[in-house]
Amino acid sequence: MKRLPQTVRVKARAAGQAAASLTQEGAKRLPSGSRDAGRVVKERAAKERAGRTRREGRDDTGGSAGSGRGCSGPASADRAPSGRAQSDARVRSPGSGGAVRRNRPRPGSGSAGSRPAADAGGGSRGGSSRALALANPRRRVRAAFLAVLFVFTLFTAQLVRLQGFDASQVAAKARAMRTGAPDIIPAQRGKLLDRDGVVLAGSIERRDVVADQLNVAEFEVRDPATKKTATVGAAGAAKELAPLLGMDEATLRAKLTGESRYVQLARKLEPDQWRRIEALGIPGIASEENPSRTYPAGAPLAPVLGWVGADGKAKDGSGGGLELLYDEQLSGTPGSSQLERSADSRVIPMGYSSVTPARAGKDLQLSLDNDLSWYAYNAIADQVKKSDADSGTAVVMDVKGRLRAVSQFPSFDPIKRSAKGSEFGSLPFQDVFEPGSTAKVMSLGAALDTGAVTPTTSFRVPNRLKRSDKTFRDSHEHKTLYLTTAGILAQSSNIGTLLAGERVPPATLEQYFRAFGLGQRSGVGFPGESSGLMAPSTQWSGSQRYTVMFGQGMSMTAIQDAGVFQTIANGGVRIPPSVVEGVRQADGTLAPAQVAQGTRVLSQKTATELSIMLESVVGSSGTAQQAAIAGIPVAGKTGTAQRYDAKTRGYSGYTASFVGFAPADKPELIVAVILQNPKNGYYGGTTAGPVFQQVMSYALQRYGIPPTGTQRTPFPLQVGQKPAADTPKVDPSVIGPNGPVRAADGLPTPPRLAVPSEAPGIGPDGTSGSTPSPGATDSSGASRPRGDGTSGAGAR
User: Fold this and answer.
1) Strand pairing of 192-193 and 363-366?
2) Taking Cα atoms as reference points, which of 565, 653, 570 lies closest to residue 604?
3) Cα(700)–Cα(396) distance, rounded to whole angstroms?
4) Which of 455, 464, 461 is CA-nearest to residue 484?
């Protein structure tokens, strides 16, 4: 509100003073009676002014501003209440346009203690004295107290919730922040042991070095001269650690600089290296246990033992071999540990701690023999190199199906798995091939077991034999031969096998093949193991009906091939191959593995007859003189088959093999030797036979298996022949382990058929001749004859 001009205010005060003096002067002039009357008049005027003041107070609160009701001229000064200072009176100054203002008391006028009325502004009357009074201080204190009490109530309720109702949850969260995630304690992986307890695969202690960059920054070094310490941080730590870790100092300093709480510096350090690093006392440098898998057996057993991944496990495609097959038993159960730590990663004394120890994996004792595996590996590797073969395998199995050696060349180095030419697959389990003549033991065994033939049944074996739409022949040209069943097996005649085997119905022949283990995986269950190819007999073509008898039109693995001869050596009972003998307990005792139940395939009589017939294969009239062992009777069979090449989808080269057991009259061990695509000679007797002789001789010596001292009378090989019981055996020292008998000119002699070309007494069961043809793969997935009439593959 604007104040009135100074001139107006002066005039108003002068007018008020003049009115007061006139009143006093008038009162003095009146007589006493008149003065009484004047007093009465004054009192009445005072009451009227009081009434007007009350009305004006009401008007100030409810009236309209600037109405000027009851206010005019100098009389406005008389309307001030008697109990208030005159400064509260409202005056209307001349020329002010009806504006009302309060009189302001002069200094020292005695009205300083009065309260001026509120300025209504714009011509409105001032407010009442009740509106201008100060608030009650008690109410203000009471309101502030209630506000503070409300705040403290909230704090109290929160404390009750935290320390009462949610105390356990809050404590658990706080402890979780101090302990962090559990530290994993790796479980010690179980060992793989050979049959004598020699470690073939084990774990050794290794350490991963890690760093906390924030703590490394506090690294201090004390100067021995000045006895003062100085913070050197990451630069000083890198200088100390670089020589021990074999790292560049600048690179290491970069890894140690920053704010990361976890940085890996090195992996799989030896314990001695870590102890030297730990002795430096660098804050923030720690280690984690990371065991490393080691394979002391090396390349001879590497493919069958397999490998593990970087995490020490073999699952999810990170491993292979027996490591993968028995990963669950070997892995064990990891443990864990939790410790309360401060913000700088220091363990809090007497704090929370929880440790769950790891449980080590089981130690598996295998049936494999480390020394025998090493010997077999070197023997087959040497022959692969001499014969310039693509690969070679040597399998040793005992008569109960326990595998003693599963060797191959090429192999791989477990330490340098990236080496050129490494072969990681286990060829004895995974590589399939057409067996050739080793399959003849199944065909003739079925004929003997069903009674279709006997060991001495006579056959007229022509130079050619036509069956279905094919003409079959033997591996060599010859005149018409007169052979017994035993002679057919000893001379590995394709035509003779067809003449004997066609007496068995196809469905029955297939039943015997499958009983020997063809078309199914072995009992080992090796990862990636092949079941071979064996088509149902209902899908055999006209020529395949005959080719399967001499080992073409089907395929098998080296383990399956060895299993066929295990069945014969075990008296006709097939026991699935096995590789685990049991679980080694903590106290050193062995918990034997469950033994697979055998199934009878041939009668005991048939198995014995086949065993005697197979002895003749290694004799002077057989095809495997190089497999003979002086003083020990050996029974076995050669195989020479055309080799199917999956890359060219056709036949390329040969598969040479020899499978046999010894001692023949009391079998203990079976050895199977297979060479793929040998270029320097390809007959099974001359390439695989010498390896068999070496490996079997070593195995018999190692296990202390002596000669039985008995000599069985062989069956006659030709019609009308009566061999003596003391038929001289072949001395391998004369033949030599590296090749056949040499003629005078130094060249190897051709395979011999020491049987007359003509003999009487041949019945009507062998009157025609034909030529066997190599196989190709038919729509069933098995092999079928190509029909080019050019091969006698499978004969030897």
Assistant:
1) parallel
2) 570
3) 11
4) 455
CA distance 782 to 777: 5
Q: Which residues contact 285 (CB under 8 A, 6 or more apart)?
A: 209, 210, 211, 212, 216, 237, 241, 265, 277, 278
DSSP strands (E only) in 614-736: 635-645, 650-662, 669-676
What's phi and psi for 206, nearest 5 deg?
Answer: -140, 155
**CA–CA distance, 87 with 101 (Å, rounded to integer):** 10
Going 145 to 150 to 154 to 159, the CA torsion angle's sign is: positive
Q: What is the pLDDT of residues 54-96, one digit of tens each?
A: 665 554 444 444 444 444 444 443 444 444 444 444 444 444 4
User: What DSSP assignment string belongs to 489-550?
Assistant: HHHT-HHHHHHHHTTS-HHHHHHHHHHTTTTS--TT--TT----B---GGG--TTHHHHGGG
Tell me what pLDDT residue 87 has.
43
Cis ω before 186 (30° cut-off from 0)? no
What per-residue confidence (pLDDT) applies to 342? 76
Angstrom CA distances, 515 to 519, 537, 567, 760, 789, stand at: 10, 14, 10, 37, 31
State the greatest distance between any 2 C-alpha atoms of the chain, in Å, as a whole number: 199
How remote is the C-alpha of 647 from its chain's centroid? 32
For residue 664, give the amino acid letter. Answer: A
- Which segments in the chain show pLDDT lower than 70? 1-42, 51-135, 344-345, 723-796
- Between 249-256 and 233-245, two packed helices, what is the crossing angle to 10 degrees? 130
H/E stretch holding 207 reads strand 207-211
Retrieve residue 13's tokens: 């005060």
Closest CA to 383 of 392, 375, 374: 392
Closest CA to 397 of 570, 520, 519: 570
Cα separation, 582 vs 365, in Å, equals 5
Residue bearing tokens 């050197």 = 232
Q: Which two tokens stand for residue 33?
A: 């009676």
Distance CA 362, CA 328 (A): 9
635 strand-pairing partners: 661
Question: Measuring CA to CA, which residue among 616, 644, 595 is closest to residue 752?
Answer: 616
Q: Strand, coil or helix: what is 50? A: helix
d(CA 444, CA 488): 9
Cα 445 to chain centroid, rounded: 47
pLDDT at 114: 43
Can you spell out the DSSP letters for 280-303?
Answer: T--TTEEEEE--EEE-TT-GGGHH
pLDDT at 85: 41
Cβ–Cβ under 8 Å, residues 633 and 662: yes
Q: Which of 568, 565, 534 is nearest to 551 (CA)?
A: 534
Residue position matching structure tokens 């920054």: 217
pLDDT of 468 reads 86
Quick count: other Cβ atoms within 10 Å of Cβ 776?
A: 18
Q: Of 97, 671, 787, whose CA–CA distance to 392 is shortest?
A: 671
CA pair distance 602, 444, nearest whole angstrom = 11
State the CB neighbour count (10 A cutoff) for residue 175: 13
DSSP state of 347: B
